[in-house]
Amino acid sequence: MTDLLPAPAGSPVVLAEPDWTGRRDAHHARVDGWLAGHRERRSRGRSHPVEDFLFEYYNQRPYQLRRWHPGPGVVLAGPAAGELLDWRGYVAVADGVTLDTATVLAARLGTVRWVRDLLAATAGRAGHFGCFGLHEWAMVYRQSADELRHPGWPLRMPAEDVAAVVEERGVRCGHVDAFRFFTPAARPLNLLQPTRADQQALEQPGCLHANMDLYKWAYKLSPLVPSDLVADAFALAREIRELDMRASPYDFGALGLQAVPVETPEGRAAYAAAQRAFAVRSAPLRQRLLDLLADLAPEPVPAP
């Protein structure tokens, strides 16, 4: 296959067994803190619109998030490393067990390049902070109560008032995976009509969904992406999701989520300030992921 690229150059890092098992165990403990409530609710057939969203919307299962991967160019020494040989992509080498980066990359190269180019284009743009979270309002616009995405949770105002906010403010969403959940009646009200084909041309670093999706891109490319980066992206995505729900037209007060009333000037100002803060915090995560992917697929990235 002529399209293959070599694994990143350089000597591998060899981790002694106490070192890497300590990192693995710390990762397990971190993830278990996120999973406890999720597992308890699942046993009772209940769901939480913030805490469970990342497991329900994204297709990374809890056990996959918990599994620790060291990433490319790392050799795990000691007999305990033999357990990784049961996982796809790992091979035995003279000093222990390591990811067969070249083989895994060969199977994922197209995705690596596409995600790399998306992240580079997004990082190269200025953020936009004028959407005020109305994508969530567009997802309930002119819907009946039994059609809502979060059944069992009331709206903060009558459905007619929700519709009036959407119609008065308009919607300015450029994220394709948010737009696809708009109600049919709301789609024509959006300033843009984003599609998968123009995702790289539209995605920008002020978008809450683009920043939550750093988690998606990180786990989709696992085990090429080390688990600490995946977990960091997950942690930030959980916080972003909370803002997403607090700014929605739903009333999640029973969960301790105080509304950000984007239907008011004060609420819009608060939302934009929080959105800017998340853009700042997402930038280094995006760069860490971009640097890794640029090392794996180092040909020049076209300008956005």
Structure description:
It contains 11 helices and 4 strands; from the N terminus they run E-H-H-H-E-E-E-H-H-H-H-H-H-H-H. The chain is mainly alpha-helical and 304 residues long. The protein has one domain. Helix 4 packs antiparallel against helix 11 (265-296), helix 9 runs antiparallel to helix 10 (227-246) and helix 9 (208-220) packs parallel to helix 11. Residues 1-9 have low confidence and may be disordered.
Mean pLDDT: 92
How many separate helices? 11
Query: What is the helix/strand order?
Result: EHHHEEEHHHHHHHH
Low-confidence stretches: 1-9
Number of domains: 1
Distance between the termini: 29 Å
Strand order of the largest sheet: 1-2-4-3
Structural class, from secondary structure content? Answer: mainly alpha
Shape: globular
- Percent strand equals under 5%
- The overall strand count is 4
Largest sheet: 4 strands, mixed
Radius of gyration: 21 Å
Helix content: 40-55%
Describe this structure in a few short sentences.
It contains eleven helices and four strands. The chain has 304 residues and is mostly helical.
For the structure shown, list the relevant keywords.
304 residues; mainly alpha; 4-stranded mixed β-sheet; 5% strand; globular; disordered N terminus; 3-methyladenine DNA glycosylase
What does the secondary structure layout of this molecule look like, with pairings?
Elements (H helix, E strand, L loop, with lengths): L12 E3 L1 H27 L9 H4 L5 H5 L7 E3 L13 E4 L2 E4 L1 H23 L11 H4 L20 H11 L6 H4 L19 H4 L5 H13 L6 H20 L18 H32 L8
Parallel strand pairs: 1-2
Antiparallel strand pairs: 2-4, 3-4
Helix pairs in contact: 4-11, 9-10, 9-11, 10-11
